[in-house]
Design brief:
It is a multi-pass membrane protein. Its main location: membrane. InterPro entries: TP53I11. The longest helix is centred in the last third of the chain and has 29 residues. This protein has a domain of about 120 residues. Helix 6 packs antiparallel against helix 7. By secondary structure, it is mostly helical. About 65% of the residues lie in helices and about 0% in strands. It is rod-shaped, with a radius of gyration of 29 Å. The protein is built from eight helices and no strands.
């Protein structure tokens, strides 16, 4: 019995066949835009991510501002924990009538925020830096409101309290400015 010779196999050149390449890329899930508008050229870059995408273009002075905030928050927290009555007297220009536990709790909360600031100083992730700035901005806004209400209730306006309110408005403005500039998308070239 004689066997028929098989016809020679024709090799398909998929690199030159555009339809085949598009089908392959569609099956792999590359070449199209993802949720962020990025176009991945390979499955590996899609899985690992584009490192340019994660590079944060920080506003000038951002790290210095976070360092300054971390130091100020830490110092204020330690003062509130160690010397609660003196801190109250400096701000409101009168002796404290209630127990000092509320000011110590305030110091503990500030110390927690200072730890967030110290963590935000050493991270490279944009989201963590944004949350750090947002936490700081919320603190300044709430402290401004609470201090204002307390001053209205006490019916007094000492110079130290005015300085505290003005500084909180300034700090809130600077923090929100950094938060806004960090959240902006860079212009594509």
């Amino acid at each position: 019995m004689a066997t028929k010779p098989h016809p020679p196999l024709m090799k398909k050149h998929s690199q030159t066949d555009l339809v085949s390449r598009l089908k392959t890329r569609k099956i792999l899930g590359v070449g199209g835009e993802d949720d962020d508008g990025e176009v991945h050229r390979s499955k590996i870059s899609q899985m690992l991510g584009n490192e340019i995408k994660f590079a944060v273009r920080e506003p000038v002075g951002l790290r210095l501002w976070i360092l300054f905030s971390a130091v100020v928050f830490t110092v204020m927290a330690l003062m509130a924990l160690a010397f609660p009555n003196q801190l109250y007297e400096v701000v409101f220009d009168q002796e404290q009538t209630a127990t000092s536990i509320s000011i110590r709790l305030y110091g503990g909360a500030i110390l927690s925020l200072s730890l967030i600031m110290w963590n935000g100083l050493y991270t490279a992730e944009k989201v963590i830096i944004q949350w750090t700035l947002l936490s700081e901005a919320c603190y300044f806004a709430i402290q401004f409101l609470v201090t204002s209400i307390t001053l209205v209730e006490l019916d007094s306006l000492p110079n130290a309290a005015i300085l505290l309110l003005l500084s909180r408005i300034f700090f809130l403005t600077v923090t929100l400015s950094y938060y806004y500039h960090l959240g902006r998308r860079p212009k594509k070239i």
